[in-house]
Design a protein that fits this description.
Distance between the termini: 56 Å
Largest sheet: none
Helix content: over 70%
Order of helices and strands: HHHHHHHH
Strand content: under 5%
Length: 174
């Protein structure tokens, strides 16, 4: 963390602040825009994919918030005086919520649209969000790693839960 934060190029702070701040709006807008497109096109597949991405966001937000309250890890700038806090941060440090929602969005988008031109930019963006949190001094590398695993895991578990629920529904309809 010290290598990333203390010796950082501060000229990049505005860029990393923007990347960091993009996590929540993009993660909320993606399923809303997709659902709207599905409505306009009268495409139930797009609407289902949008709902899956929205469900992933909600599952991830719940689990991340709960973990923060259980672990209660202090922020690095609170623990170490040499870590420079370059952006405001509230609540606890573990896991990184920004990283978690970015990876939940990237993974769910990639599962809904398994094309390189969706997967590559999605994960570059999610990785940049994670890196930005360390660059700005508000998370430890382990917070970011846990956020990435939690976000991706939330998408996978939501996908599996939907598959299981849809399988049960199709059995009842027969």
């Amino acid at each position: 963390l010290r290598d990333i934060n203390v010796n950082r190029n501060k000229n990049l702070d505005p860029t990393f602040k923007s990347i960091s701040r993009s996590a929540l709006p993009i993660s909320i807008a993606a399923p809303i825009v997709m659902y709207s497109v599905g409505l306009i096109k009268k495409d139930s597949t797009i609407k289902k994919q949008a709902i899956f991405i929205g469900e992933t966001f909600l599952v991830n937000a719940f689990v991340t918030t709960a973990l923060k309250q259980v672990v209660k890890r202090q922020r690095p700038f609170d623990t170490y005086s040499d870590i420079d806090q370059a952006i405001s941060a509230s609540s606890y440090s573990f896991p990184s919520g920004h990283t978690s929602i970015a990876f939940a969005t990237a993974t769910s988008l990639s599962m809904a649209y398994p094309k390189w031109y969706v997967i590559t930019p999605s994960f570059i963006w999610a990785g940049a969000v994670g890196y930005s949190r360390m660059h700005l001094g508000v998370h430890y590398p382990s917070d970011v790693f846990a956020g990435a695993i939690l976000g991706s895991g939330s998408a996978y578990l939501t996908y599996q839960a939907n598959k299981w629920i849809n399988k049960k529904r199709s059995k009842k309809e027969k």
